[in-house]
Fold:
Amino acid sequence: MSVLITFLWIVICIALQVLVFNHLPLAGGVILLYLYVAIKMPVEVSRPLQILSGFLIGLVIDIFCNTLGLHAFAFTTTMWMRLPLLHMFVLAEDIKTGEPTLQRIGFQSFWRFLLSILIVHCLVLYLTEAFTLFCFLNLLLKILSSIVMTFVFLIVLELVMRRKPV
Structure:
């Protein structure tokens, strides 16, 4: 049941990304909803499976957005960095199983983890897309606007999706 719900959540994130959020740019940046998958993936999922899922999710987004592997490369890199970034802010003993949530790891650790994921992903995605530093200020604005918009959106989403203890 949990695998089915996770798969459904991934499909919803990809669909919303491709159909809605990619068409709402602000200062050149967009909300990258599919990064919520990287944040919410359970810790016990093996690292090779995390990296493979990052590649496949990025590839699906590339197919629908016609971006020739940019999202696949960026999301694969992000998923490769995910566990080391998580363990920078949360002790491995504190989160051996389950997903990193606001309730489990605390607000400070959660926003630091989220921000580090966003920085890695946006830098890889937009620097690879531009492949130059010619328009550095435009590139910086695009990276910063995507980071800020996605950060705010995902924090609000996490607060809304937070389950109350039974």
In short: The CA atoms of residues 90 and 109 lie 7 Å apart. Residues 2-160 form one domain.
